[in-house]
Amino acid sequence: MRIKHLFAALLFVAASVAGAHAATEVRMAGDARVYGVFFANRNFTGWDETGTQTEDRMTIWQRLRLRSDFVANENLKFRFGMRVDDEAWGHGYLTAANPQVAIEPYLAYLQFKFPGTDIEVTAGYQPLSVPHTEVFYDSIVLAADDGDQSSAALHVNIPVSENLSVQAAYGRLLAANRTFQQTTTQVGDAFDVYQLALPVTVDGFAATPWGLVGVYGKGADPDGLFNAGLLSAGSYVNTTGYPYKDNQNAMWWGGLALTVEALDPVKFYADAIYGDAAPGDRERNRRRGYFIDAGVTYSGFDWMLPGLFGWVASGEDESLANGSERLPVITPKWGPGTSFLFDCDQEFANTSMGVNPLGSWGLALAIRDMSFIEALKSRLTAAVIAGRNSPAGLRKAVRAAGGPGEYVTMGRDLAQGEWLLGLNFDHGYELTEALTLTLQTGFASPQGLKTSIWGHRMTNQAAEAWMASLGFQYAF
Q1: Does residue 265 have a cis peptide bond before it, meaning omega lies within 30 degrees of 0?
Q2: Which end of the chain has the lower number of beta carbons within 10 A, N or C?
Q3: Average per-residue pLDDT in the chain?
Q4: Closest Cα to residue 152, out of 97, 209, 190?
Q5: Based on C-alpha coordinates, what's the Rg of the chain?
Q6: In angstroms, rounded to a whole number, what is the distance separating the alpha carbons of residues 128 and 146?
Q7: Looking at residue 180, what is its pLDDT?
Q8: Are 79 and 107 in contact (CB under 8 A)?
Q9: Local structure of 27: helix, strand or coil
Q10: Positive or negative CA dihedral for 338, 49, 324, 244?
């Protein structure tokens, strides 16, 4: 998109602000990021996940976020956010001629308190996630990624007391055909979710039991956006083009997020989750499993925040006929201590290995907020992750999906006997109060990658991964 179009959009927002009702307060905030990334062997090869394309190791990226809050009073507000998403220089909207359209809304929701009550309603395109403890960034099942993964939803928060509230939500994540379908035969073409959470908070203790139910139409996702997280490998043997036999399939998850701060400065965190997708369909299409994580941090130092984290997740067995034994997930964003192995809360996008924590166990040690020089903060994280998936199960999954990288990926989905070591050392220097110079570095080493699963061509090419990124963050 040409830069004048961006200016026109910004002027439109400014005009809307100027024309707003006098009683409405308008607050604007956002951030801009420009950064370069050197990444060698991001898939532990010089290729993409399927081994069919060669990577470019050096890329320069940029992004923009702008949020506007229209506040009538403390009980009524509307948030509108637009973004120019992460894109590489010389591509998309950042080309010299005929650039693509860039600006898109990523937040648009109304928030108000029902008159005469403390019941808060949020309606519209909004961050929607299931509860997960904060030290792991966001949910392994359904995450909002700080608003970047919004959903069209209705969320209601009902305070019962100062220690207990009831939170209920409905979201429509996919609707393939909008109002009318393309044939006169009705096919389930929507993916709806229903959420219930009961946050309980007392001094030094917080617990949130939660549940999530989904109804997934077999024609809801023609582009396969959620295949890797919701399907089983057995689903790929279907010949109809649809992943399921039934027109609509139920999915459900239950979990508990727990935080204990009573022993401050020592704080404990834990999550436990179980999920089951398509339990009523063919057994080979079913996917169910568990995920458990836990962490401890110590905030008694004024110059660093150390933490130790661990997790364990169910893995695939050797059969495809009985479906998948991994936890079904929708839009995961999870990671311990901002580990380079996982796509989580890194300052810059495109700077992690994107390893799948499902079907694995692991440990991570993170030392965050290290400060030896004024205005400079550093983070050091070391993590090790080992596979819990059956080698035979992954080998059959690769064959069923048509090759590596289609459903499971070498170095990201780990079998028993395969493991990874990841290390990252990151720094942020405040040039001004609003402008930060950020340097990220990462290293990952694969061990025990199995030729019987991924093939000689892929494992012979496997090598250690290296990443370095440097760029600016401007928050306003």
Answers
A1: yes
A2: C
A3: 93
A4: 190
A5: 23
A6: 10
A7: 82
A8: yes
A9: strand
A10: positive
Contact 231, 225 (CB under 8 A): no
Q: How many CA atoms lie within 13 A of 412 on its CB side?
A: 21
Closest of 57, 51, 40, 52 to residue 410, by C-alpha: 51
Residue type, 30: G
Distance of CA 435 to the CA centre of its chain: 26
Query: How many CB atoms are located within 10 Å of the residue 95 CB?
Result: 15
Hey, what are 420's tokens? 């990874």
In this model, does residue 129 exceed pLDDT 90? yes
Q: Which amino acid is at 311?
A: W
CA distance 127 to 349: 19
Mapping DSSP to helix (H, G, I), strand (E, B) and coil, where does residue 334 land?
strand
Burial of 248 (0-12, 13-18, 19+ CB in 10 A): buried
For 182-200, write each residue's pLDDT tens digit.
777 778 889 999 999 999 9
pLDDT surpasses 50 at 1? no
Tokens of 7: 């200016």
Token pair listed for 209: 């039991």
